[in-house]
């Protein structure tokens, strides 16, 4: 039986998912431009040549414009591929077709490099449903990114991508939840010092 934190997370995810579905096409397009601008500035500020990102779904803040632009500038971008065992494989972003992975998520069609490929990135950009002001991230409940971040030998800075309305004062947190170093919205990028227990 799920604990209080997990029940709170489920209810919050449902509300956030519904709010995202209500966004208009114009709001999504405006957010996509802002996200690309903010992510490009973040990569430049960290002066990195290798990042991991994700291919956004229809309701997520759009990361695809950023991925295309980063690849065109010669930045190596790794994209996740979900596996049935709860781990992520990674593939290099290029012009290959996008396929539908587990859970209907968009994934790169390139060659899977294995879970350890992400150990070489200098910056991680990950999805989230919400973030709180101390770096607690609420994901969508499958734990892929928490497992990945928690098992990395050398953890780079990790930033979550969300809409402006998804920055909350506090979120329920469980032991396995991995904090982030900051978040990116269509209008701002905030670096925080995540709480560690």
TrEMBL record:
It comes from the Bacteria. Its EC number is 6.3.3.2. Its cofactor is Mg(2+). The keyword Oxidoreductase does not apply. It is an enzyme of class 6 (ligase). Keywords: ATP-binding, Magnesium, Metal-binding, Nucleotide-binding. This is 5-formyltetrahydrofolate cyclo-ligase. Coiled coil: none annotated. It comes from Microbacterium suwonense. NCBIfam families: MTHFS_bact. It catalyses: (6S)-5-formyl-5,6,7,8-tetrahydrofolate + ATP = (6R)-5,10-methenyltetrahydrofolate + ADP + phosphate. InterPro entries: FTHF_cligase (IPR002698), FTHF_cligase-like_sf (IPR024185), NagB/RpiA_transferase-like (IPR037171). Signal peptide: none annotated. Belongs to the 5-formyltetrahydrofolate cyclo-ligase family. Pfam families: 5-FTHF_cyc-lig.
């Amino acid at each position: 039986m799920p604990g209080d934190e997990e029940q709170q997370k489920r209810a919050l995810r449902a509300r956030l998912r519904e709010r995202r579905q209500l966004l208009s096409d114009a709001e999504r397009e405006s957010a996509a431009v802002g996200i690309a601008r903010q992510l490009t500035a973040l990569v430049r500020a960290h002066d990195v040549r290798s990042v991991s990102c994700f291919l956004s779904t229809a309701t997520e803040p759009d990361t695809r414009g950023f991925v295309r632009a980063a690849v065109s500038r010669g930045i190596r971008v790794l994209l996740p591929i979900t596996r049935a065992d709860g781990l992520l494989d990674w593939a290099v972003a290029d012009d290959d077709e996008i396929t539908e992975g587990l859970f209907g998520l968009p994934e790169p069609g390139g060659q899977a490099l294995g879970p350890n490929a992400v150990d070489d990135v200098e910056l991680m950009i990950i999805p989230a449903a919400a973030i709180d002001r101390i770096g607690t991230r609420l994901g969508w409940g499958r734990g892929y990114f928490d497992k990945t971040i928690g098992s990395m030998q050398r953890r780079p800075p990790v930033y979550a991508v969300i809409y402006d309305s998804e920055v909350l004062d506090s979120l329920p947190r469980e032991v396995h939840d991995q904090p982030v170093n900051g978040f990116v919205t269509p209008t701002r990028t905030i670096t925080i010092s995540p709480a560690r227990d």
